[in-house]
Amino acid sequence: MGNYIVKHYNFFIKVNWILSVVTAVANIFLYTKLPQIVGNHFNMLGIPDSSGGKAIIWAFPLIFLVCAFLFNEAYIDKLSLGWIKNKKIMKICILGVQIILWIAILSPYIYYFSII
């Protein structure tokens, strides 16, 4: 499993670029249709437990872009972190963080599309 992740690491990072574009396009559609106040933090059941202005949806594509830059393989390989000797383990950990971010950022879109 670990070798598969390392071999296909760039594919997983490209998903950030794709998600950035997809969420930006979704935002163009959603922004005019959403109410001024929307949920901006959700509990484990996907129910909003905090609210704020609808402009928060523009942060999601930006987060994907930042992750695409920070987690790209060329940058990771040049990183000289003395406490991390094994780049394979680092890439697997980064992918774990990515999956958590994908779920955390994409799940609010289910809510946003349900309220329009």
UniProtKB/TrEMBL annotation:
Q: Which residues form the signal peptide?
A: none
- Keyword Transmembrane belongs to the record: yes
Q: Which UniProt keywords apply?
A: Membrane, Transmembrane, Transmembrane helix
Q: Name one Pfam family in it.
A: DUF1648
Classification via InterPro entries: DUF1648
Q: Which residues cross the membrane?
A: 12-32, 52-71, 92-112
Q: Which residues form the DUF1648 domain?
A: 19-65
Q: Which residues form a coiled coil?
A: none
Q: What is this protein called?
A: DUF1648 domain-containing protein
Native organism is Enterococcus phoeniculicola ATCC BAA-412
Task: Give the classification, highest ranks.
Answer: Bacteria, Bacillati, Bacillota, Bacilli, Lactobacillales
